[in-house]
Amino acid sequence: MLIFYVFLLGLIVGSFLNVCIYRIPRGASVSFPPSHCPNCKEPIKWYDNIPVFSYLLLRGRCRVCKIKISFIYPVIEIITGILYLLVYFKYGFTILTVKYIIFVSILIVLGMIDLQTYYLPEKLTFSLIFLGFALAFISDITILQSFLGAATYLFPFFMIYAYGESILHKSILGFGDLELVAGIGAFIGYRGYFELHLFFTISFVIGAIVSVILLIKKQKGRKDMIPFGPFLVLAAIIMILK
């Protein structure tokens, strides 16, 4: 029964994460005004705001103006629910589950915003860093490991960033990516060279595979930008669930 409640919590939080993903890049409040259709501005009734179920019942359209609602909304809700379950299966009924569902929730928002806008909001990346330090006091790592994690995870990516800026005179990584990886390091903590190398490898391998696929399908050109934040997010989630 607890498994059901964990999944349900993920669905509910996922619905709120959708609000964050949509509003934060637009500089809007995530709490006011209440949920409304972005097209006709009509407030969404509670029975039309039930995660996944309402989307299916309405067949993916606004009840009032009938505009199509992106399928991304229920997908994010389901993904959040599944990730909450995976975190629970990994860490059980412990404080670590609380820590890592907070971690996963912020990562989902950051990854989706970067995917859609090529932008990582500082208010979220810095929140990730500070929360990583704060939650170290009640988790499986020490505050020293948290600080070392932020520094050591950041270092190789900063070197890549500096190489692109000073040698190639173009951005290989954005500064937001550096803030994100520092936050990931603060949450995961430094646990040895192997763990650091594994995170680095996973993020770049996933990035390379996706980039090649996009190039082959001609959805991106060689000079087109591809956001790296989602690959960092995927690598971080793999690291805490492995």
Provide a concise account of the structure shown.
The chain is mostly helical and 242 residues long.
Structure, explained:
Residues 101-211 form the Prepilin type IV endopeptidase peptidase domain. GO terms for molecular function: aspartic-type endopeptidase activity; methyltransferase activity. Residues 8-90 form the Prepilin peptidase A24 N-terminal domain. The chain folds into 2 domains: 1-87, no CATH class; 94-242, no CATH class. By secondary structure, the protein is mainly α. The protein contains 9 helices and no strands. Helix 1 crosses helix 3 (72-91), helix 6 (143-168) packs antiparallel against helix 7 (175-188) and helix 7 (175-188) packs parallel to helix 9. The mean pLDDT is 87.
Q: Report strand %.
A: under 5%
Fraction of residues in H or I helices: 55-70%
**Number of structural units classed as domains:** 2
**What overall form do the CA principal axes indicate?**
globular
Order of helices and strands: HHHHHHHHH
What is the structural class?
mainly alpha
Count the beta strands.
0
Instruction: Report how far apart the termini are.
Output: 25 Å
Count the DSSP helices: 9
Q: Return residue spans where pLDDT drops below 50 for at least 5 consecutive residues.
A: none
How much is the radius of gyration in Å? Answer: 19 Å
Mean pLDDT: 87
Largest sheet: none
Domain Prepilin peptidase A24 N-terminal: 8-90
Protein name: Prepilin leader peptidase/N-methyltransferase
GO molecular function: aspartic-type endopeptidase activity; methyltransferase activity
Function: Plays an essential role in type IV pili and type II pseudopili formation by proteolytically removing the leader sequence from substrate proteins and subsequently monomethylating the alpha-amino group of the newly exposed N-terminal phenylalanine.
